[in-house]
Amino acid sequence: xxxxxxxxxxxxxxxxxxxxxxxxxxxxxxxxxxxxxxxxxxxxxxxxxxxxxxxxxxxxxxxxxxxxxxxxxxxxxxxxxxxxxxxxxxxxxxxxxxxxxxxxxxxxxxxxxxxxxxxxxxxxxxxxxxxxxxxxxxxxxxxxxxxxxxxxxxxxxxxxxxxxxxxxxxxxxxxxxxxxxxxxxxxxxxxxxxxxxxxxxxxxx
Length: 205
Prior knowledge:
Layout: H1 11-20, H2 29-32, H3 35-106, H4 110-178, H5 181-202
Helix pairs in contact: 1-3, 3-4, 3-5, 4-5
């Protein structure tokens, strides 16, 4: 609201200004204006900035791993479709081979029988190649699925770490307002827990 000649401060802004001015703020008492009070306020403010920075990094990593998980799952689906096509092709060759074998077995002369046998042998070879290609595609699909699951697990870890750090920031704001030491300690404890969860995510645990 600076365009009308005044500005409304939030509680956090007020605490930071109080620390910067040396703690001489009437209404917070002698304890708030002491050197110890200033040091605590400044420490919490700096810690909050550091926690917010870590939270932003964790949030970015969470989004990146989620996007990767979706991409890898899509790649797995493509490979599964290709493998299915190969198995359909394999079935088609099996049908042709069965018909060729029937024709060979019912042929009335050696010339026709040998001609059908050549086709049977060819179909058998083609089936072997198609089967190998289908199995390779299935293995690739399984690898993409595994990578997608790994990325989703990381995403959940990053999301957990981000949430915990957000709770820590909320505790910091309350600690600044109330000047309760146990809230300050809780803030640091929760922040450490958030960083630990982030470390687990980075280590793929």
